[in-house]
């Protein structure tokens, strides 16, 4: 749905309504797109109309194509680049992996018009990137810090930029790039067209939008900040780290038979330790963390994409922006540090309309999710929560709202240790759904969360 806009363009319902020429349509069909996604139906007409836009959409929604296709039309309407001029379109994103994926899409669709794309990101060769920029390219896909480095060294210029995209703006802010994002926006001509995409719409992002966009149309797919509805979330509460390890080794064969598996851990050392232990158990897997050099990372991602590696163990920064449709299961072996990281983790599965499973493993060590008295008092004001907080019985299944979320308990567990785990679970449950404004009461959501104690 659309918020905060007067007379927005009508949404399209098929690719024919976009008015693309046969060259681009042929490439879209060749890329196995059958019909536009909701964000494309509304976002593409807005972008084609030259309007600034804020797109709030879940991961895997098809938003990348929603800004790439209009970008190509925009570039073809501009005067051709002359020798020494900088790009016409700049796409800014938080990580090198996402940068490479968007660059790949730009090349795939841009080649029909002979348009050139260059990717510049930290960890890549400055000299090679500078050389590619100086040779000329209509499109630059970049991480914010590296683009600023190249502009300062005069490898490129932002004077010709009239189409500016900030993708996953919330993650750029989380990674400390607010200053760089604002700096880039301030050095691009004011009559540009700007598109800003984010999975969440917090106050900092709202302020950024007010500062750098002009009369934007805000398009929201689903509810602001919600998790991907195509993902079933399951929380497993376990006593110890050893139980957690046992759970993973028991289930991994089952998970890999359904598709690729992505396992998240929070620290590089944990990542290496878990990968080593799984290797010793005979599992074929890839390892991905921020300290690996770029060529190693690229090889691991390529092998995982080609299904040569059925399992990938990764840290959050390393796996940021991975778009691999074959991922059917995400395992949060370590709990995410915050709700946005959790949302983006589970968004690695259930992409492009496919269904996915996301498991979160909790042990008694995860006490950082303890609930304050004020938060508990707030939760107790909710009739469902107050009733279910004290409800007993065997084998019950309680639903929130119209069946959107489920709580499932194993029968016959009532020991003191189980009670402490239940309190831990309650803390995590409240952390996800109350403190972060995700305590669903509306009946139309299809997200399912099952919690096992």
Automatic annotation (TrEMBL):
The source's domain of life comes to Eukaryota
Q: What is its EC number?
A: 3.6.4.13
User: One GO molecular function term?
Assistant: RNA binding
> In this protein, which residues make up the domain named DEAD-box RNA helicase Q?
13-41
The UniProt record lists the Helicase C-terminal domain at: 247-398
One Pfam assignment: Helicase_C
Q: Which PROSITE patterns match?
A: DEAD_ATP_HELICASE, HELICASE_ATP_BIND_1, HELICASE_CTER, Q_MOTIF
Transmembrane feature ranges: 419-440
- Keywords assigned: ATP-binding, Helicase, Hydrolase, Membrane, Nucleotide-binding, RNA-binding, Transmembrane, Transmembrane helix
Top enzyme category: hydrolase
Location of motif Q motif in this chain is 13-41
Residue stretches making up the Helicase ATP-binding domain: 44-219
* The reaction(s) this protein catalyses: ATP + H2O = ADP + phosphate + H(+)
* Family the entry assigns: Belongs to the DEAD box helicase family.
Question: What's the protein here called?
Answer: RNA helicase
């Amino acid at each position: 749905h659309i918020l905060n806009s007067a007379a927005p363009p009508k949404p399209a319902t098929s690719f024919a309504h976009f008015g693309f020429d046969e060259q681009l349509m042929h490439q879209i069909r060749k890329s196995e797109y059958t019909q536009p996604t909701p964000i494309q139906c509304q976002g593409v007409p807005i972008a084609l109309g030259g309007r600034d836009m804020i797109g709030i959409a879940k991961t895997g929604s098809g938003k990348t194509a929603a800004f790439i296709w209009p970008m190509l039309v925009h570039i073809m309407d501009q005067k051709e680049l002359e020798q020494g001029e900088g790009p016409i379109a700049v796409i800014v994103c938080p990580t090198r992996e996402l940068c490479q994926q968007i660059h790949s899409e730009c090349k795939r669709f841009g080649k029909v018009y002979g348009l050139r794309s260059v990717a510049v990101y930290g960890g890549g060769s400055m000299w090679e990137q500078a050389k590619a920029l100086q040779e000329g390219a209509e499109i630059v896909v970049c991480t914010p810090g590296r683009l600023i480095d190249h502009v300062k060294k005069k490898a490129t210029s932002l004077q010709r930029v009239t189409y500016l995209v900030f993708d996953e703006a919330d993650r750029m802010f989380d990674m400390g790039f607010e200053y760089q994002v604002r700096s880039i926006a301030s050095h691009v001509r004011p009559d540009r067209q700007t598109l800003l995409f984010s999975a969440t719409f917090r106050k900092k992002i709202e302020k950024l939008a007010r500062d750098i966009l002009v009369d934007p149309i805000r398009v929201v797919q689903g509810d602001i900040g919600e998790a991907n509805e195509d993902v079933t979330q399951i929380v497993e509460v376990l006593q110890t780290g050893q139980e957690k390890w046992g759970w993973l080794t028991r289930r991994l064969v089952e998970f890999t038979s359904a598709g690729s598996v992505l396992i998240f851990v929070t620290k590089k050392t944990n990542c290496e330790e878990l990968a080593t232990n799984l290797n010793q158990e005979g599992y074929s897997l890839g390892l991905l963390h921020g300290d690996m050099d770029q060529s190693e990372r690229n090889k691991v991602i390529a092998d995982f994409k080609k299904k040569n590696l059925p399992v990938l163990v990764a840290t959050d920064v390393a796996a940021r922006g991975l778009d691999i449709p074959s991922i059917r299961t995400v395992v949060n072996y370590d709990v995410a540090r915050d709700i946005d990281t959790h949302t983006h983790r589970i968004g690695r599965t259930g992409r492009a309309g496919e269904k996915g499973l996301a498991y979160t493993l909790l042990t008694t060590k995860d006490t950082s999710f303890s609930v304050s008295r004020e938060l508990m008092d707030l939760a107790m004001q909710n009739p469902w929560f107050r009733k279910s907080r004290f409800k007993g019985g065997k084998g019950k299944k309680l639903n929130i709202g119209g069946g959107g979320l489920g709580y499932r308990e194993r029968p016959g567990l009532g020991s003191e240790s189980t009670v402490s785990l239940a309190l831990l679970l309650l803390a995590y449950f409240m952390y996800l759904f109350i403190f972060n404004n995700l305590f669903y009461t509306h009946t139309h959501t299809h997200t399912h969360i099952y919690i096992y104690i």
